[in-house]
Design a protein that fits this description.
It is built from 15 helices and 25 strands. With 686 residues, the protein is α/β, with parallel strands linked by helices. Helix 6 runs parallel beside helix 13 and helix 8 packs across helix 10.
Amino acid sequence: MHFHKCMLVILFSIIVNANGQRTKDKMFSSIVGSSCFKRLNGTHETGCTSTYGGSVGVLHLINTPDDFQFVLKDPPSPPYAVVVTPQLFSREHIMPIKDSPHVSAIVLINNVKDKLTQFSQELKCPNQFSTIDAQSCDVTKPETTWNPFGTGLLHENFPFPIYYVSDDAEITKILDCFERFNKDDPVNQHQRSLCSIQINTFMSAAVNSEVCLRRTNYMNNLSATRFCDPLQGKNVFATLFPRENIPRLQRGKQSHEKFVLVTARMDTTSMFDGIGLGAMDSLISFATLISTAQFLAQLLPERIVSDKPNVLFVLFNGESYDFIGSQRFVYDVNNGHFPSKAHGTHEIGMENIAMMIDIGSLDELQKFSVYRAKEFDEANQLVNLLQKYSQQFSFNMSITDKITQNLPPTSAQSFLRQNLTFPAVVLNSNPQNRFYHSIFDDQHNIKFRYFNTSQDFTTVTDRNDNSDFPASSIQLAIRDVSTVLAASIYQMITGGPYNGDKGSNPVLIDELLYCFLISSECPLLRAAGPKNLPARPDAPPPLRYVSVQGSYTHESVAWTYRLLGFLIGQSVPIDEQNCTTLPLNWFAGFNGTGQCHYTTQNFSQAYSPAFLEKDYDWTSGNYSTWTESTWRELNARIFLKPSSTQEAKTLAIGFVVMIISFVLVFLINSKSDILFGDCVSSENTC
């Protein structure tokens, strides 16, 4: 009997839970999207957060600038979640509602009817206070800014969530709900049920990085609670020629060893979690460095002149946030920590760097300048060589020389802040990217079309063989820059001109852009990966946001490491069983049959020195202090919110029922002897 009672209780619980879940599903409809989140630095907090239980607001669609006035003046049923399109997501329209007591959320829908002319939430002067001259970039003078299209919304602190919805089905769900319940007779909205949204994006961090980390460290003594984590990742570097392997005890600086340092940015960023490909802002320079390195490795499989410089390629991570990766690189070099002792080579000091060539934002690949802060001979030589090879190869690029304190916001700034006479140049175009650091800096922004030629991308090609790509293609434009740059570096490290007819491989560039813009299930990454790598249909491209320790975004770092090893490392006739110890690496190869490479690539830390120093002055601006807030969930759901009148009626009815219940219980209790007899225990019968 007892068993049957237990089974009945369990069955009843299942039925109640199932019905409760079905009721919940009928009440709420989830909205798939991406959220803005909080980041902090030494003095400020930026980004968005919901209230602890989720921010709720009545949906109100903004079709024109005039529609903002409805929620700003005296709306009938606040708070509202305004639904805006990218055309209206500008500083002019968003800042007035930031402090409005009538707005509880913003829903940004990718419902672009007309072509967007610009969309950048970054500052007009990115990383302004980590440069050699913060005043040289002046927002009041557009000609001096490096992102004239920026709104700065990425660096504002919003008291409510901003939720981005790009899927057409989800957008339709939101718009249909608004049309059915909210659109008609807006003045009398408070008299009826309204379509509303609840956004759960509560952020744990607050105030600034110093306060947040102090709270985290204090709480860690009691529990494992974390409120924020430093932005960090890994830089990836490789040398063109292998360096001498030495025991750790013999490690030291070799004054005769010189390097041409060639750098670019690995990362990008945007306002919304997990979205932002950075096609023009950093992927073009990333692809330029990779193709330059591969071309040089093909031209110079072995060192020709021993007393000429080696080439050190470095892709810095976290540069979007006050140059995290390059600041740490400079810090490590100055303290004798680069490369790490585990690398098994001599350390590299600043005196070992003959010259730095920093590949910045190449918005116009056929027209760019060589920027530098001071005059030095190597820069003059590089400018002359770039111009020479551009003309010799009939690429007809416009390359100018500029000496200025208003340098582009690139990694070279970290080196020049330490020493203004450091021999650094920056290859950079005039700013043309209208979607800098935004969700729309994608394949369409650089007019990329995948040609999928199925040709071998591991070799160099004839410079004049352009049959597979249109003359105006992004592939050939990057090919031209990387070929000219590689030929110039070739002459600088060999002492002789490059007179060959080869050039960088546009097929490699085609594949590289496809992998990082469309899908990581691509021939190039499959070739650079281990043999028999499982297929990953519809795999998204690797995210290149720097993020925090242990983040899934570090996949891009791992692939960059594999690419440098595969494309720069030299193939050696060693079987797979014996190709297991670094510097040997096994790759699947273009044909998938596998090949062993002698490689030089490795990692270095992209973790700000600010988090290493015990008593660091958080307001000094010496190092990047960016952290990212922790959160529990990022989601949203729409539902039908009752009118205030209906809510009042429901409350009143509930209150009346409660009073009646109390009265009935009192009456029944007072008359229990009449109603239930004189039973005093369960053993008596009434």
